[in-house]
Amino acid sequence: MSAKKTAQFDPQKTLESIENEFEMVQVLNEEGKIVNEEAMPKLSDEELQELMTRMVYTRVLDQRSISLNRQGRLGFYAPTAGQEASQIASHFALEKADWILPGYRDVPQIVWHGLPLYQAFLFSRGHFVGNQAPEGVNVLSPQIIIGAQYVQNAGVALGLKKRGKKAVAVTYTGDGGSSQGDFYEGINFAGAFNAPAIFIVQNNQFAISTPREKQTAAKTIAQKGIAAGIPSVLVDGMDPLAVYAVVKEARERALNGEGPTLIETLCYRYGPHTMAGDDPTRYRTSDLDTEWEKKDPLVRFRKYLEERGLWSEEKETEVIERAKEEIKDAIKKADETPKQKVTDLMANMYEEMPANLKEQYEIYTAKESK
Ligand SMILES: Cc1ncc(C[n+]2csc(CCOP(=O)(O)OP(=O)(O)O)c2C)c(N)n1
Ligand SMILES: [Mg+2]
After folding, report:
1. CATH placement of domain 20-337
2. How far apart are CA 83 and CA 225, in angstroms?
3. What pLDDT does 370 receive?
């Protein structure tokens, strides 16, 4: 039996009208054709080539990181292939002064923001040097606690506003992350304080093995921003030009004092959740993989650039070879970094060491000097 509805009070209708407002923004379709001229971002030929270069480089970095992990030369690693438009094109819309608060899968963005690659490898190994971004590289360490970076992002953004900086704070989480309390607290706080923040949800369809449909009753994750009173966008996360355009606009709005934006990027991870041993064939069909591979961000962007005479096989090979060389050098540098001692871990934990830790510190200093 369904409840009687009146024209004056129909919450289901209100919900549907909000949900149906969220059309996916797309600029470049799967065939590499521009389908939305109006939304086409103003990027020079060189910038378009640089964006492609970074996406190709990042795919190589992912492949190499997976093999290094299998060889036992890396520790924690969450694969990124499939998410290049969502990650790299969103970052491409930022400036050096902006702050990035990444999740564990967002290592590429902080590397492109200036974290030396060997430090990203040390982060993977749990080495404290991996968490010490050089001065002027405005990134925090990748967050492992799902969603926690959303609250911090609201705070960092408010800090930037109070200090009168011309910069925004940008954070990333996943579809699963959008179910966490911290997600709602973060977007609500940023909305209430009109903070210059960008909140990105990379909806890669799964939270480990939990499909998006089981994550929430909401039709889109973007619509969750409505409750916080902040503008929200649903974007094709396999389309680098659309992702760039929406993040660029969100940044401009934030700098104009117009507050935060929530952006849902629809994307897919081709690999496993992490290299710790989950088997995606247990929770995904190969048909679904194939469906998403057809949307590949590199394939469609390559088609578009080749058509315009801005990309070639030679150019791509050059990028791949350079990436391989730089990755080899970076892993060598990570290997040459002195091994982490227990006292290093303690010394880097607190600004001022508590008394009980001081005691242990002395015990370990004595042990390590033997
Ligand atoms: C607070 C918290 N709960 C649970 C976990 C365990 N956990 C690690 S990753 C993950 C799934 C996250 O999925 P999603 O947010 O969609 O991000 P994705 O890994 O797909 O990028 C979970 C539940 C955690 N790290 N932190
Ligand atoms: Mg996910």
Report:
1. 3.40.50.970
2. 22
3. 87
Distance 145 CA to ligand 2 centre (A): 14
Three-point CA angle 363, 365, 366, nearest 5°: 65
The residues lining ligand 1, judged by C-beta closer than 6 Å to any ligand atom, are 105, 144-146, 173-177, 204, 206-208, 273
Dihedral, CA atoms, 120, 105, 341, 337, nearest 10 degrees?
Answer: -20
Atom of ligand 1 nearest to the CA of 78: 19
Q: Which residues are CB-contacts of 251 (< 8 A; sequence separation ≥ 6)?
A: 93, 94, 95, 98, 168, 198
Give bridge partners of residue 30 from the DSSP assignment. none
Q: What is the pLDDT of residue 2?
A: 56
Confidence of residue 32 (pLDDT cuts 50, 70, 90): very high
pTM (predicted TM-score): 0.96
Pick the closest to residue 76 from 23, 144, 25, 13 (CA basis): 144
**Ligand 1: nearest atom to the Cα of 203:** 16
Q: In the chain, what's the furthest Cα-to-Cα distance? A: 81
- With H, G, I as helix, E, B as strand and everything else as coil, classify residue 96: coil
Domain extent listing, the chain = 20-337, 340-370
> Is 258 in a helix, a strand, or coil?
coil
pLDDT for the residue numbered 4: 60
Residue-level pLDDT at 5: 58
